[in-house]
Amino acid sequence: MEYNNTNSKIKYLSKPIIILTAVVSMLTFSIFFGINQVNDVNQKVNSANVSNNQLVQKIDVLKDVQEVISDGVSFAEIALPSKGVILFGMSQVKNKADSLGLTIQNLKVSSATGETNGIEKVSISFDISGDNSNLFLFLDSFEKTLPLAKVNKMSLIGQDENYLATVTLDFYSASPLKKIPSLTGQINGLTNEEMMILQELSEYEVPEFGIPTVNEFPAREDIFN
Amino acid sequence: MDKKINLIPEDLAVPASVVKLTKIINKLSIVMSVVLIVAVLGIVSLLFYFLTNLKRAEASNSLLKDEVTTLEKVEQQLVLTKDKISKINQVKLFDSSDLNLDNFKILQNIIPEFPDLILGEVQISSKGIEILISGKDTVSFITFLRRIKEFDAFPNVAISSFSLNPKSGISLNLIYGI
């Protein structure tokens, strides 16, 4: 009889216990699963917001520099050209000598030698003769000349006001970057120091090339009239 | 008042304590069910809210990426310019003869003060200036060297060669280092 009574107690209690267990299990599952899901989505929202902020900052930077950069890149590119530094250099040497009435002879160009950090050096050597003060004006002018140049060495001999000098000028070039930052990567604008350098470069003398004139085609003959 | 009549034999009836426990469990189940419903609603609302935010953020991200793509040329120019400027700064630090050229101009201005001294070949480099100077008057040489010493531009002056010729006089090879 005792046995039957215990059985009936269990039967009586089992249903509510099963229901309670089911409800508690569902609640636990919902809370854990739900919170995980919410966390996942929240993390995605946060990373999207971070990415958005970076993009907004990048757009602001790019819009800020948009006006100055097209001129800036030109001056920076001429200052340290990726290619054609010899032509630019020779053009500067010739034009400056012509404008100061100096005579250039025995112009020689060395092969490029690597300096640090992708910078290459090409040396142009030549004999130059003429008025003493103009010769020094010529040499001084390379301090503010594009492409960037430095007087490597010179020897000179002269009498009275006329000098004959053998000059070696170094011109520099640099290969362009091959990789730009990723679309969402951060970018910094131009610093004040960089802006000042660009401003300084814009006052330097740029090489001048004669623009070749294209022969115009003669007017086509009208064969119907 | 209703009168409760229990017709079940007493030995088969569920004890009052079990009935009470069952009632507690049932009440607990109801409370838990309510909590479950509230939790599910809360989580679904949160998920909906965050998913809406995510959708909005992704849409904005896509628009911003498009805008960055249209500014890609500016970005390339900016990166190139910054790279070139850093290299320009390095080039500016490379050795050059500019300073010694300026120093030589000081020498050039001094030499006319000594008409009996003749300036011969001059070598100018980033390391210094080497000049050949000749003349017959020893006093002029000494005065010239004293005059040179007055300038801070030439802290180190060395005589690299000395020759004496009865016809042309004395020839000195002077090296001015920085």
**Alpha carbon gap, first and last residue of chain B:** 122 Å
Fraction of helical residues of chain A = 40-55%
Helix content of chain B: 55-70%
CATH fold topology of the domain at 83-175 in chain A:
Alpha-Beta Plaits
Structural class of chain A: alpha+beta
User: What is Rg of chain A?
Assistant: 38 Å
Oligomer: heterodimer
Overall tally of structural domains of chain B: 2
Q: What's the pLDDT, averaged over the residues of chain B?
A: 84
Order of helices and strands of chain A: HHEEEHEEH
Q: Please, what is the average pLDDT of chain A? A: 83
Fourth-level CATH superfamily of the domain at 83-175 in chain A? Ribosomal protein S6/Translation elongation factor EF1B
Our estimate of the beta-strand percent of chain A is: 15-25%
Count, helices of chain B: 4
Keywords (chain A): Membrane, Transmembrane, Transmembrane helix
Transmembrane segments (chain A): 12-35
Transmembrane segments (chain B): 30-51
Organism (chain B): Candidatus Woesebacteria bacterium GW2011_GWA2_33_28
